[in-house]
Every structure is written in structure tokens, then in C-alpha cells.
């Protein structure tokens, strides 16, 4: 069962989180209106294209496992903290779920955070690699948070 969480002040206006049984969705809220205008499936040509602000607030696919996250490091950390402190994550760990020692990295690139992590990216093909929602398996949540936290240190 999923739970759409209220963003914390530190996440705004960049992030919204939906906590699920084995994963969480991280939504780039600045880009969501553009994503909704284009709809699901084939790109529609009769709608207003995304603005520069919306593109700056979107996830951006940069390679097979490389993804640029929008917003400041602190906002992304707040979203990941919300994932890791939610009861769904706690139930997952209590049921035997464990973080994987995956090679997840984070670095600053052009004012954005470049993540190398196995995120599931939704509709990245509709707008030149920009997209609104990424799914993060709980097994990668703590390693990803540690990699992003190292940038803030």
C-alpha cells in the first residue's frame, strides 16, 4: 500500500515522496505540471512546451544509470530522509530487507546532483530525457542517501 507524504519545508518546492511497500517514488514537483500537460504515452504537440524553470526542476536522464536531480543537495537529502524514516521503510527492514552494497555515487555537476544509481525512470523519452518521477528501491535508499550526504559534508 502506498502513502503520498506531505513535503517537509526543506523539500519544497523540489520534491514530493510516495512511500510504497518495497520502494518510493521521488517526484520532481517543479516539473510535474509540464509532465501532466504532455500526458502519458505519445507526446502531444498541441500543448505548451515545458518552460526553462520546469526543465531546471526536472529529473534528467544523463546515461544508463546516470541521472541529474533537480534542486539543492539539502532538498534531496530531506526527501531521502522522509523515505528512510517512513513506517513502510521500517516494515521493509523489519521483514528482512537490507541495503545493497551497490556502487552508488553522487557528485555535483553544473549546480545539480548527478546520481549514478539504479533508479526506475518514468517517461524519460517524452521530453529529451526530462521526467517527473523516479522509483527508488528501498535496497538503494540508504546507500543513495549516504552518497548525497557526502556532498553536503
General form: globular
Total count of helical runs of at least 4 residues: 5
- The helix/strand order is EEEHHEEHHEEEEEH
Beta-strand percentage range: 25-35%
Radius of gyration: 15 Å
* Low-pLDDT sequence parts: none
Structural class: alpha+beta
Main beta sheet strand tally, sense and closure: 5 strands, antiparallel
Cα(first) to Cα(last) distance is 35 Å
**Domains (count):** 1
Record the strand order, biggest sheet: 1-2-3-10-8
Q: What is the strand tally?
A: 10
Q: What does it look like?
A:
- With 153 residues, this protein is α+β, with helices and mostly antiparallel strands.
- The chain has one domain.
- A five-stranded antiparallel sheet has the order 1-2-3-10-8. It has a five-stranded antiparallel sheet with strand order 6-7-5-4-9.
- Helix 3 packs antiparallel against helix 5.
- The protein starts with a strand and ends with a helix.
Output the keywords.
five-stranded antiparallel sheet; alpha+beta; 153 residues
Kindly summarize this structure in a few lines.
This protein has 153 residues and is an alpha+beta fold. The protein has 5 helices and 10 strands; from the N terminus they run E-E-E-H-H-E-E-H-H-E-E-E-E-E-H.
